[in-house]
Write a structure and sequence with these properties.
Elements: H1 2-20, E1 26-27, E2 37-41, E3 45-49, E4 52-56, E5 64-68, E6 75-83, E7 90-98, E8 110-117, E9 130-133, E10 158-165, E11 168-173, E12 176-182, H2 184-187, E13 194-199, E14 209-219
Antiparallel strand pairs: 1-14, 2-5, 3-4, 4-14, 5-13, 6-10, 6-14, 7-8, 7-13, 8-9, 10-11, 11-12
Length: about 220
């Protein structure tokens, strides 16, 4: 009797995990080509080099995004990223969309939540926080301007993990938890969309570059 009760209890505990997980992580970058990806907005260059995607700035280009052709709603995203230049700010879009040019948005402006990527320097960084790219409100993360972390390693490969599940987005950098944001209002307008690798506009500076590799997505129920 006690054994049956214990097994039943374990079964109940397992239900939320089973509901959260839906299949295996799938690579969305083959390490050789940009198949499955489309560039949107600016004129930065994206090429495959040494098994990674290399994004390089172009003078006077607006923000550029290499975007997955497939859209994702609830998912676990993992990738490795390296900033080759500390002067370049970058990010990865999630659940993002493109405004049509006829709506007054030049280049079909990409908009949606962005997971921040920037060098740490001496004072730390806001890497891993959530910014609203072209969403009309700036930072989605609460008190972002006052939050700085040292998890991001300058000049090295950094491992990101992002879990987007309903109105909750969580981020980790190199195993350190950075963000755990639940906001129904902020994410209501972006329930699903593409993943986008940003090369930030830098005006007449540069060229600067950023690299990504080992990009996988596990879709969740």
């Amino acid at each position: 009797m006690k054994k049956s009760i214990a097994m039943a209890a374990l079964g109940l505990l397992a239900l939320p995990l089973a509901a959260f997980s839906a299949g295996d992580a799938v690579s969305i970058f083959d390490g050789k080509t940009l198949n499955g990806w489309t560039q949107k907005n600016g004129t930065a260059t994206y090429v495959v080099k040494d098994g990674a995607i290399l994004g390089t700035t172009v003078k006077d280009s607006p923000n550029s995004f290499l975007c997955s052709d497939k859209e994702y709603g609830n998912f676990e995203l993992e990738f490795d990223v390296k900033l080759n230049d500390s002067g370049l700010n970058s990010g990865v879009q999630i659940r993002s969309q493109t405004k049509a040019p006829e709506d007054g948005a030049k280049y079909g402006r990409v908009h949606g939540p962005q997971v921040e990527i920037e060098a740490s320097g001496a004072d730390g960084t806001q890497s891993g926080l959530i910014y609203g790219e072209a969403c009309g409100g700036g930072w989605m993360s609460k008190d972002a301007e006052a939050r700085h972390y040292k998890a991001f390693k300058d000049g090295e490969w950094n491992h990101y993990r992002v879990v987007a599940n309903g109105a909750r987005i969580q981020t980790w950098i190199n195993g350190e938890a950075i963000e755990d944001l639940t906001d129904e209002a902020k994410f209501k307008s972006h329930p699903k969309g593409f993943i986008g690798l940003q090369v930030h506009g830098v005006g007449d500076r540069g060229p600067f570059s950023v690299m990504w590799k080992n990009i996988t997505v596990k879709e969740l129920d």
